[in-house]
Write a structure and sequence with these properties.
With 110 residues, this protein is of the alpha+beta class. It contains 3 helices and 3 strands. A 3-stranded antiparallel sheet has the order 1-3-2, covered by helices on one side. A hairpin with a 5-residue loop joins strand 2 and strand 3. The chain is elongated. The model has no long low-confidence stretch (mean pLDDT 81).
Length: 110
């Protein structure tokens, strides 16, 4: 029994065996039957909203920022994290866990 698990884990089967064919079938089943929602991050652009060029999103931990409206403090933190003194903050979004605690802030910068 241990030998079988060892072979499966390290995949010692040649390509022209039934085990290889079974693996290929399992991979194809996964590819075609996996729900699309598993690969979506849940954020969609609103109708008419387009992604902005030259905009990066930076995740800043909640322990670094107490208030999302304190743009001066956020700007200082972002400049320290990125090492860029000319950075501009475009938008700040609060990220909240399912239990209601603040996880951090997404900061769109240019």
């Amino acid at each position: 029994m241990f030998n079988i698990f060892k072979k499966i884990l390290f995949w010692n089967y040649p390509r022209n065996t039934w085990q290889w064919d079974a693996l290929c079938v399992v991979i194809l089943i996964f590819i075609f039957l996996t729900p699309k929602s598993w690969f979506e991050n849940g954020e969609r652009l609103a109708a008419g909203q387009h992604q902005r060029p030259n905009v990066s999103t930076l995740m800043v931990g909640a322990e670094l920022i107490e208030n999302e409206r304190d743009t001066a403090r956020i700007l200082d933190r972002v400049r320290a994290l990125t090492g860029r003194s000319e950075v501009q903050i475009l938008e700040v979004r609060k990220r909240v866990a399912q239990n209601g605690t603040t996880v951090g802030y997404e900061v769109d910068i240019r």
